[in-house]
Each structure stands twice: as structure tokens, then as C-alpha cells.
Amino acid sequence: MTPSDGGKSIQPRIVVLISGSGTNLQALIDSATAADYPGRIVGVGSNRPDAGGLERAQRAGIETFVIDHTQYDNRESFDAALIRKLEKLTPDLVVLAGFMRILTDDLVRYFRGRLINIHPSILPNYQGLKTHARALEAGDTVHGTSVHFVTEELDGGPIIAQAEVPVLENDTDQTLGARVQAREHVLYPIIVRWFCEGRINLGPDDEVLFDGEPIPAILTLPADVYQ
Ligand code: GRF
Questions:
Q1: Residue 1 pLDDT > 60, yes or no?
Q2: Average pLDDT of the residues in 123-146
Q3: Both 123 and 215 in a single domain?
Q4: Structural domain range at position 39
Q5: Nearest residue by C-alpha to atom 9 in ligand 1
Q6: Mean pLDDT of 182-192
Q7: pTM listed for this prediction
Q8: What is the 3-state secondary structure (H, E, C) of 95-150?
Q9: DSSP state of 70
Q10: 3-state helix, strand and coil shares in percent for the chain, rounded to the nearest 5
């Protein structure tokens, strides 16, 4: 995407939403420092004032904001406040990076096609929480992470890309989770970059388009990208 402004090309504006330590946010910030980066992170927001990722953003000179969900009576009023704040930042892309809130249909529809999430499992397996523990409990030999467009179904939107990791014999949810996160820190910045370059879009029938064509299969990156 290269939104134009009176014929003058401007960079897509990215807002990242977090709730926690923000290691994925850090990977996005680092990748955005590349001279040829096709987008700009214009804001980082959190529903938790104590989210460690806010400091990461501040260190990088990025505007931060907090909309503390405990100050709102219900999901609708929280999301309405979030939409108002996001509107001011005029994002071309809203990136959920460990944002631990279920979003209302209104918000999801408002940002349709420009709202993506990373979920630590090979979706559709293990929607929801505690994905690493559940993969271990099930005796899976392969686990991983998925990047998807967000639609009304929780962790159920069209999947853009996935990365797999092996489950090792002595894995705990921490060791497995760390292996998954290492993949996320490579995969997510690449997908965000492709989105900003206009290579990835959501089609009218909720199909993922890559370079204008529906993807025949969920995207995976070559193994050497992760080395
Ligand atoms: C990631 O593992 C992501 O898949 C999930 O939340 C976690 C966020 O971790 N949605 P961090 O805050 O980026 O370290």
C-alpha cells in the first residue's frame, strides 16, 4: 500500500496494540529502523498501564497511549474509546501484538482488512489461551504460530502465514513458548512489511490476497529466513 496524498507518496501508518512485555513489538520496532522500511509505527497503545512494551516504544521515540480497561464499565465503552484514539492516529494497519482483550464486532468491522494478530499456535488449533501447554498436553510433535486478519471470530480470521517449530521431548511450556516466540519475531515483521508494501490484502470474500491473487495455501517462509 502506498497511500497517496495529493500525488505525494506517504508511508503507511502502523499502530501496535500490546498488553505485556512487547517482545514482538520490539521486533517490529527494530525492523522499522531499516532505511527502506515501507511503513512508520506512529503509536503504541496498551490496555494496561504497566505493560513493559510501553517503555520499549518510548525508548524508540514512539507515541504511546493507555486505555485502561479497568476504567470502563463494559467492552463496548472500552472499544469505543479505543476506536476514538485509533481514529486520531489514522492507522493504515493496526497490529495486535499480545493485546489481551477480546475486541467487539464493531471495532473489528471498523478496521476490517487493516487489523492483524499473531497467535501462538498453528490455527485453527488452540484458539484462546495457554496454547503451549495445550500442545504439550495433546502430545503434538509440531507447534508454532499464525498471523491472521482479525474478524469477528476470536482467533478465527483468515490466516496469512504460519511458522512451525518442533516440540522436543523435554519441552516445558516455557521452552516451547520461547521457540515459538523466536519464530514470531522473524515472521511478524516480514508480514507487516509486506502489508505496508501493499503485497498482502484482505479480499472482499475474506480471502487473503498476495500480490493481488488469493493465496493457494497459508504462507510459510523458507527455513533459512529464521537462521
Ligand atoms: C505472543 O506470543 C503472541 O503470539 C501472543 O502474545 C504473545 C505476546 O508476547 N499473541 P510479547 O508481548 O510480544 O512478548
A1: no
A2: 98
A3: yes
A4: 12-111
A5: 98
A6: 98
A7: 0.95
A8: EECCCCCCCCHHHHHHCCCCEEEEECCCCCCCCCCCHHHHHHHCCCCEEEEEEEEC
A9: G
A10: 35, 25, 45
